[in-house]
């Protein structure tokens, strides 16, 4: 019995889809930037294991951008040093990113003056960090034409910056701080705090004497035991994948 045209078209569509996905995966691998394969980007420093995913966002002022070891820079992340490309910004770096930093997809780090991000910071997607803000002192001049204000920004090590957060000029964020999604941070944030809101305020903090105040509402997660081997973790992952496949097969059988 001849196969229907729809079956042939469906098979061809699947083959084309697979080819497109395979081609895009190749483009992503080839377009990624590392210290060994920087492409057109020549950073002042780029540590071992650091990777900028493709496609990259706007990047300029690379000689004044220092990236630490084992950083993950997501797709469409903007990294800039200076107000515009091709400026001479002096001998010292303007944007410093520590070791093990993760910048989520679509985030922006705008360093017109010094911005420092400590090691082991994790940014969700679409975080915006800037050392520059518009001024509006003169009511007769369009705001975009007035000279901006610049203040250094410092984010301490070990912080988690939630999706869509905004870090404004002059912010000084301490160590191991949680910035809630959508928060707008200015001024000084102490170590071991949780901040939320616009403008952000401290909603929880930790001290050696009192622990977390207000107390945490959920129990601490159970860490992976020290005696678990990588092979055992892989076996668990495969078991989870097989269980998921079995569940999908059961659901399909009942459709």
UniProtKB/TrEMBL annotation:
Belongs to the transferase hexapeptide repeat family. It comes from Streptomyces ortus. The keyword Signal does not apply. PROSITE patterns: HEXAPEP_TRANSFERASES. GO terms for molecular function: acyltransferase activity. CDD domains: LbH_MAT_like (cd04647). Keywords: Acyltransferase, Repeat, Transferase. PANTHER family: ACETYLTRANSFERASE C18B11.09C-RELATED, SIALIC ACID SYNTHASE-RELATED. The lineage of its organism: Bacteria, Bacillati, Actinomycetota, Actinomycetes, Kitasatosporales. It comes from the Bacteria. This is Acyltransferase. SUPFAM superfamilies: Trimeric LpxA-like enzymes.
